[in-house]
Amino acid sequence: MSFNTFGHMFRVTTFGESHGVALGCVVDGTPPRIPLAVEEIQRDLDRRRPGQSRFTTQRQEADQVKILSGVMTNDNGVQVTTGAPIALVIENTDQRSKDYSDIKDKFRPGHADYTYEAKYGIRDYRGGGRSSARETAARVAAGAIARKIVPDMKVRGALVQMGPHKIDRANWDWDEVARNPFFCPDRAKAAFFEEYLDDIRKKGSSIGAVVEVVAEGVPPGLGAPIYGKLDADLAAAMMSINAVKGVEIGAGFGAAELHGEDNADEMRMSNNGPVFLSNHAGGILGGISTGQAVVVRFAVKPTSSILTPRRTIDRSGAETDILTKGRHDPCVGIRAVPVGEAMMACVLADHLLRHRGQAG
Amino acid sequence: MSFNTFGHMFRVTTFGESHGVALGCVVDGTPPRIPLAVEEIQRDLDRRRPGQSRFTTQRQEADQVKILSGVMTNDNGVQVTTGAPIALVIENTDQRSKDYSDIKDKFRPGHADYTYEAKYGIRDYRGGGRSSARETAARVAAGAIARKIVPDMKVRGALVQMGPHKIDRANWDWDEVARNPFFCPDRAKAAFFEEYLDDIRKKGSSIGAVVEVVAEGVPPGLGAPIYGKLDADLAAAMMSINAVKGVEIGAGFGAAELHGEDNADEMRMSNNGPVFLSNHAGGILGGISTGQAVVVRFAVKPTSSILTPRRTIDRSGAETDILTKGRHDPCVGIRAVPVGEAMMACVLADHLLRHRGQAG
Amino acid sequence: MSFNTFGHMFRVTTFGESHGVALGCVVDGTPPRIPLAVEEIQRDLDRRRPGQSRFTTQRQEADQVKILSGVMTNDNGVQVTTGAPIALVIENTDQRSKDYSDIKDKFRPGHADYTYEAKYGIRDYRGGGRSSARETAARVAAGAIARKIVPDMKVRGALVQMGPHKIDRANWDWDEVARNPFFCPDRAKAAFFEEYLDDIRKKGSSIGAVVEVVAEGVPPGLGAPIYGKLDADLAAAMMSINAVKGVEIGAGFGAAELHGEDNADEMRMSNNGPVFLSNHAGGILGGISTGQAVVVRFAVKPTSSILTPRRTIDRSGAETDILTKGRHDPCVGIRAVPVGEAMMACVLADHLLRHRGQAG
Amino acid sequence: MSFNTFGHMFRVTTFGESHGVALGCVVDGTPPRIPLAVEEIQRDLDRRRPGQSRFTTQRQEADQVKILSGVMTNDNGVQVTTGAPIALVIENTDQRSKDYSDIKDKFRPGHADYTYEAKYGIRDYRGGGRSSARETAARVAAGAIARKIVPDMKVRGALVQMGPHKIDRANWDWDEVARNPFFCPDRAKAAFFEEYLDDIRKKGSSIGAVVEVVAEGVPPGLGAPIYGKLDADLAAAMMSINAVKGVEIGAGFGAAELHGEDNADEMRMSNNGPVFLSNHAGGILGGISTGQAVVVRFAVKPTSSILTPRRTIDRSGAETDILTKGRHDPCVGIRAVPVGEAMMACVLADHLLRHRGQAG
């Protein structure tokens, strides 16, 4: 990862600001002759799109993606990749000509306003500019392509905690995820979140969350020790998502509390090859996939755009207060679910190509 | 990060196996004319060195580092960097000619044995080969050079949890860290750990831990969004350390439980410039340093080398049991403290050079 | 350089095919607060644009560039860079709905048709697809941004040979370059080329050329030995341009014929610091700039799109003939001049940032 | 390529100075289970080793290479790669305790003395330090490993020109290369060079040369457009070799003089697949290998270490003269032959792995 590009063989470069002309990405290193329809990308984008329930920002963005390059119709009339870079563009349509004077010169606490200013000496204050979560649309688009490279892997995400409220894992039902506005696999908890988050939203507050992303069908052997470990790349990928403050694999922080005999996953043979009797490792040992499900969780902080006045300073150094009006997600963790899936898919696609290159 | 190299401007490439001829690293991109004595590197290595208490492996390694290149004595008689790559080598002296036949063909649960075999079709079984924690000596050596690049930053680590037992943060005393064999900043808890870990050690078991690394004196502005965020690079750096299963910044997973008004750090002015009234952000917002202390925690799983027999399979696929004798750390989290510091120092040095390159 | 990205700190990723929707690039790592108007980019593009004389392809492309991201209007009303990636897009307007059936299945000798097919198993035959010289428009656009990063460096190119005919260096006049359709600094030779190339064009043939690019004002110290040498990066940059088959620095291949005492540039002192008495080195010693003009020459082969029938095979392996109709440059070396300038500017900008990062 | 590392999947990092403790390299990304004996590396090193005839420097270096990591003995008793990084070290044994006071403060014209000083503010003057051609021993060692990755490719080099004297290509005999001290494939010309270079050597002068490296057995499809073109990577690889001032592929600069109908290589079918009727392309079209022999030539300038006094300045800026005594190659182009081969092998190995990664 460096600047605005990530990946080694499957490489994604994103660009664009919240309220600029457009945002998008260039996806490089895609294997050739993979069927790729724009609808497949759009489908993933639609899951991330704001304004679909009262629990996400009311900003209305069509998020219509266009493919500019890297595909062509083959002899069978199917649009496929050519191996050339695939450029995707999403125009910003809802650039409400709003008055930004209230945040133009003030640093919103918890946002990147002050740090961008400190780094660059200039800051695109319109909707957060480059630091806006809107950038994650480009990740989701890239992730849709990544999925096509690893069609045998099933990458799914779910919201497993909101505020202090964790789901009941006994209730886990993947089908439930699509049925509620929280991507929550626990039907009962989803019902609870409806009321819980409504209350937070009405108060103009916000709340954090934990997202879990699971990849099944990952073959053993993916990962490139020592500094391209699968878990290290996943950690960077997830931590690079806006508002994420923690990442864990498998037992994660819980592993700190375990004894060796409880943590290590024992092995047996089955007709289908080696099996593990548990998955504390989260599908990764020594930075390399075990063949079990790869399990990653990440913590998303509450958005800092809230209706309560907060103390801050302005660009001149004067002390002041700020209250962030606007259309914000009361729980940004919700829309982080498809983003986390996309990052997982991108990392897995990259590692598949890297593995094939070295050990192919 | 890719394969065995990490960093973009300050680049570290490590090599070597647990029981090979030697291990070491090549440190590239170091600014020229920085005083660098081999003793400065040795000092950090000595902190990581095994065999210093009964709570770390009894393997006896002198871990004497040699500088092969990249330095010279300047006109003032001081050894300084030249800007050329600095190669460091540590010979393996305690390559006990032990009998590895008990692990040569069996996969130790919780270790990387199976995954290396799955990936490479071959595995250096002698002491874990490349996946041995011994590789971290090279990181510590590189970190000692990194510290010289960021002399105004103070990077310190501490063990803050062992098993379910967390330190009392009210007792935090940095000076205490050097006084006990656990790098623990809480004197009372260190006393407790002495007995606690002795018990685990005698039983042939092991236990997990949590390590916290804090960097003070980091200027605002370090970090390279979107995919070279300071926290993303730190997450990868820490997750790449052996046995680490989770990483968090600032409030970390705790942020998931917070409301926006509790999480966002408010700002005021002081005579020394902007100040924050709290540090839930862990010194990083939008992937860029705020000027506050950068705070990272990571979870270390218990070593899987224990005296209790575990179920596993061998290379032929036959089911069997394994019991790992040998000289192992009952809590590998302890020696992860200087390693975590080294990784933090490397990431900060890299980002300082990157920032200077782009933003001058 | 890897895949479709080049540069280390100043990074350019290009995308797009000859007859696709659009082509463009993402320019990453640009320092913030640099004034950048779209007209500055357009100006350079206009120099490369086809259809400006009868000596370049008659394809009509407006080559209008749009900036999608990475800039904003500052407090003084000037559009400046923000440090975020700058995406540039150029739409393809002259996608003549021509019949490609004659080249769809045949491999044009001298073109990349066969090799793309061999590599990817699929080939975008429409106008050469990704291998079209049209891709160089994106390089020129990126180069225009690079120039803004190194405003004190003057990067200029010229055509110094066409076929066997070299210019007379005694006639070199930089002002002449803009006055003839060949970017030729020798007025007399330009007059000769007019007739010479007309003859080649009318015969449906083509001819090779040599281009020289000179950068003045390059400070001493740029370059990153050993594998990021300034000349190595320039060699890759120029060789990556379509149809380039050779690159040389300073005396270049001529240095093979020299004795040591004739080749090494002697030094004296002046009021402005060290001066060299000659420039056989082409401004680079040991991979690092000397402070003299950096001088690069590259050879461009004749386009293989000619009206003479050539023997080839088709995708099924059958032997056949091919004759490439269409709108082609009789001497592609001409339009390579602004492309070579752009690549030089990009490499210099990258190395300035890299040097500042390490030794700043 | 960046700093002291090159390659994308097959990555080589070198370190070491002419008169330091040791030099060497870390070779990363090597596929596992490849037989690799230290003798195979030594064999290539011996070809580059100085002091083997009166036509190369009389410095006596054993150049004994040691493998520190990345290999192990497999079940069949054969030493093979494990997929982990392979560290190679060559100790400097002939660090003659000579007096460097005559060059310590003076800049030798044509050498990198001034530029290293300008860049780093310090310079390892002992034998040229990092800029010494001695660094190329590490490349040759890495190249020996690369050859094992591409066993079906035959990479051979030859000296084809010394001063203005070119070989007669009609006399080309690969077997002759090993029979004369010039790596010259033309027996008659080799005899001539013997006398010619003796004369230059006795006069204390030096002369340039041109080296040609040919790789046969390269499959079609290697290369990664647009900025990882096979020829672009080869150009960087060759230009990064000390004293190289020009690189060309196939017809090279000669292509500038050709018409399209003479340059483009026509195709026919054979029982073994497509064949080309000529090889002006040097085995590369559009940056991708054609399946023909890959042909690269590079120009090596004469060493600047000569016995004739030259005008220069010293570190204080005072004008002075310098005369470089010492043990130098009268034609450094000779020993560049195995170095060029090594770089070719490294680039091909890298591209094989990259191609396998993307296009499988």
Task: Furnish the topology, listing elements before pairings.
The structure is a homotetramer of 360-residue chains.
Chain A: E1 5-6, E2 11-16, E3 22-28, H1 38-48, E4 65-67, E5 71-73, E6 79-81, E7 86-91, H2 101-104, H3 113-120, H4 136-149, E8 154-162, E9 165-166, H5 187-202, E10 209-216, H6 230-239, E11 244-249, H7 260-263, E12 267-270, E13 273-276, E14 284-285, E15 288-289, E16 294-300, E17 310-313, E18 319-322, H8 336-359
Antiparallel strand pairs in A: 1-2, 2-3, 3-7, 4-7, 5-6, 8-9, 8-10, 10-16, 11-16, 12-13, 14-15, 17-18
Helix pairs in contact in A: 1-4, 1-8, 4-8, 6-8
Can you give keywords for this protein?
homotetramer, 360 residues, alpha+beta, 5-stranded antiparallel beta sheet, globular
Helix-strand category of chain A: alpha+beta
Instruction: State the low-pLDDT regions of chain A, or none.
Output: none
Task: Indicate the overall shape of chain A.
Answer: globular
Number of helices of chain A: 8
Largest sheet of chain A: 5 strands, antiparallel
Helix content of chain A: 25-40%
The overall strand count of chain A is: 18
Widest sheet of chain A: strand order? 1-2-3-7-4
How much strand content do the residues of chain A show? 15-25%
State the end-to-end distance of chain A.
24 Å
Write down the overall mean pLDDT of chain A. 94
User: What oligomerization state is this entry in?
Assistant: homotetramer
Query: Of all protein chain pairs, which has the greatest interface, and how many residues does each chain bring to it?
Result: A-B, 113 and 114 residues
Order of helices and strands of chain A: EEEHEEEEHHHEEHEHEHEEEEEEEH
Based on CA atoms alone, the radius of gyration of chain A comes out at 21 Å
